[in-house]
Amino acid sequence: MDVGETRFVLDPKAAVHADYTFVSHAHIDHMHNPTRNERIIASKETSDLARARGYDLGSTTEEVEGVELLDSGHILGSRAIKIADEVYYTGDASGRERAFLGKCRTRRARILIMETTYGSPEYVFPQTAKLVREVNGMIGSAFDRGRPVVLMGYPLGKAQLLSYYFSSWEPLFFHDSVAAMNKIHVDHGVSLKAGRGFNPSEDSDRLPSGPWVMIAPMSSGRSHLMSHLRSRYGAILAAFSGWAIKGGYSSSLGADYSFPLSDHCDYSELIKLVEAVSPETVYTTHGFAAEFASDLRRMGFSARTLSAYQSSLSDYVKGD
Ligand SMILES: [Zn+2]
Could you tell me the distance, in angstroms and rounded to a whole number, from the CA of residue 91 to the centre of ligand 1? Predict the structure, then answer.
């Protein structure tokens, strides 16, 4: 879609000719190194997180005429975008408050482009407070038996929620890749405790022999590091992902426990998001895109799946 003479592209994987490129957040699947002339719309937090991950977005802006950026609640700095009254694009979005993150803010628009990672009715997540209680119970029982616990999640986003919720346990270790992302959160005013650093190539034989908690990137229980933490220290592995709703997730990952803590909307939150935007047309992308579009059509919405992920916004609308 062109607003007046202005062309926007949304989360492209490579530079695309346009007046503005919107980068919704700093997860790698939304990143690219822009060309010199590209004008990037992104939050300051996204720009800083991107730089720490090896992507220089250059001088970004949040102020463009006719454009409104809204907190999408997914990770630090994540934004949804509304362009004129025409289009509202969610990027990745969460429908609930978690720790230091708010929930996705919405606006009415004629066209809604939305992520549908968990757009199937089986994906309804439990209350976060209940999940946190369960995890604390699991850690407590491990400590009673003298066993350490590794909490695994994506290093940007999930790992900071884990750092926030479970930092009262001592001793507390942060894997280096998590600590690097935690630091940027602290620089932006998020209150995260400074635990002890853990460099896997230097420290894997220097951990205490009693119980401890480590926040680490998601990895297979069969990986070299996790196998070592298990065999040497008797570590218990817990994985955190929305996919943990499905039985068998722990065993497929080789973890002892898994918990459905997610940075995305669950099914019911996706439906609420559509109702709040009240669009004429919905385009779905990611995950259960076809199933969710079909459910929306049954509810009376005009909905379809995007044929090509992250093509230009004008392409979306030309096909309408
Ligand atoms: Zn994301």
Answer: 8
pLDDT computed for residue 314 by the predictor = 47
Expressed in angstroms and rounded, the spacing between residue 93 Cα and the centre of ligand 1 is: 8
Query: What's the chain's length in residues?
Result: 320
Please give the Cα distance from 99 to 166 (Å, whole number): 11
Residues ≥6 apart with Cβ < 8 Å to 99: 160, 161, 164, 165
C-alpha 228 to ligand 1 mean position (Å): 30
Output the DSSP codes for 302-316.
Answer: EEEE-SSTT-BHHHH
> Which helix (H) or strand (E) segment is 215 a member of?
strand 213-217
- For residue 25, the CA-to-ligand 1 centroid distance in Å is 7
CA of 181 to the centre of ligand 1 (A): 14
216-244 pLDDT tens trace: 999 999 999 999 999 999 999 999 999 99
Cα(282) to centroid(ligand 1), Å:
20
CA of 74 to the centre of ligand 1 (A): 7
Buried b (16+ CB within 10 A) or exposed e, 276-290: bbebebbbbbbbbbe
Please name which of 31, 104, 285 lies closest in space to residue 21, comparing C-alpha atoms.
31
User: What's at 10, amino acid-wise?
Assistant: L
Alpha-carbon distance 176 to 168, whole Å? 19
